[in-house]
């Protein structure tokens, strides 16, 4: 079987590239259907492999995310290394939010959200725009049980040593800031769960993944 022709060096197959970018670089549609590539999302190609949820998130973030769009929900949490239950860690969906009145992207492996400007608080991490960690907490409170919401809140209030999976670039969030986010989230799904979790959250709580760390 013939080996596929090498791609231009500026097309990163590990992180993903758009088919439009490939065409602009002289790559044919037939070449993009070769066995060494696979589609992570419509219009995005990555090197052929068993794709993980993180692969979906990264390829869309690098090759499909437009101005004004941000990784959200489980995708945002995965990007920051924040704690999620296994079901959300393994969810083969990329979550993307936009601010009203923009329309979120759609697709087989895309779930879009449209937030009002007060709730569309973003932060750039590793060159990708995501909802801010505190906003991710508020958004995920609609999908997490109380215990998991407390764990997530604790991860925003404790040091990197006590929450080792979390990116060290996640700054510590004072409780007052999280309460302010909860107030802006009033009336949204998960708002009551978020308020209850903040009452139980403790600064410096030990990550459940390191029970003997002594934090």
Give your account of this protein's structure.
The protein has helices at residues 19-24, 29-32, 53-63, 73-80, 86-89, 133-140, 146-157, 175-184, 191-200, and strands spanning 17-18, 37-41, 44-47, 69-71, 94-99, 110-115, 122-125, 128-131. It is an alpha+beta fold. The chain has a domain at 65-200. Helix 4 packs across helix 6, helix 7 (146-157) packs across helix 9 (191-200) and helix 8 runs antiparallel to helix 9. It is elongated, with a radius of gyration of 19 Å.
Backbone structural class: alpha+beta
Give the distance, in angstroms, between the N- and C-terminal Cα atoms.
Answer: 56 Å
What's the tally of helices? 9
- Total beta-strand segments: 8
Choose one word for the global shape. elongated
- Low-pLDDT segments: 209-215
How much strand content do the residues show? 15-25%
The major pleated sheet works out as:
3 strands, antiparallel
The radius of gyration is: 19 Å
Helix content: 25-40%
* Spatial order of strands in the largest sheet: 1-3-2
What would the keywords be for this entry?
9 helices; single chain; three-stranded mixed beta sheet; 215 residues; three-stranded antiparallel beta sheet; disordered C terminus; 8 strands; alpha+beta; elongated
Task: Please sum up the structure shown.
This is AbiEi antitoxin C-terminal domain-containing protein. With 215 residues, the protein is of the alpha+beta class. It has nine helices and eight strands.
């Amino acid at each position: 079987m013939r080996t596929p022709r090498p791609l231009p060096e500026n097309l990163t197959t590990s992180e993903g590239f758009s088919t439009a970018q490939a065409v602009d670089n002289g790559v044919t549609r037939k070449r993009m259907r070769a066995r060494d590539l696979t589609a992570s999302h419509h219009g995005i190609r990555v090197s052929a492999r068993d794709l993980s949820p993180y692969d979906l998130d990264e390829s869309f973030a690098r090759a499909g995310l437009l101005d004004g769009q941000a990784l959200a929900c489980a995708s945002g949490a995965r990007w920051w290394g924040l704690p999620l239950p296994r079901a959300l860690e393994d969810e083969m969906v990329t979550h993307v939010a936009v601010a009203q009145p923009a329309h979120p992207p759609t697709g087989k492996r895309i779930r879009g959200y449209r937030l009002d400007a007060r709730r569309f608080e973003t932060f750039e991490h590793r060159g990708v725009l995501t909802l801010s960690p505190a906003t991710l907490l508020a958004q995920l409170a609609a999908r997490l049980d109380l215990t998991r919401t407390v764990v997530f809140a604790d991860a925003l209030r404790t040091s990197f040593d006590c929450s080792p999976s979390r990116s060290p670039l996640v700054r510590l969030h004072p409780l007052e800031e999280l309460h302010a986010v909860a107030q802006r989230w009033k009336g949204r799904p998960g708002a009551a769960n978020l308020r209850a979790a903040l009452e139980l959250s403790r600064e410096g709580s030990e990550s459940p993944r390191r029970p003997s760390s002594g934090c």
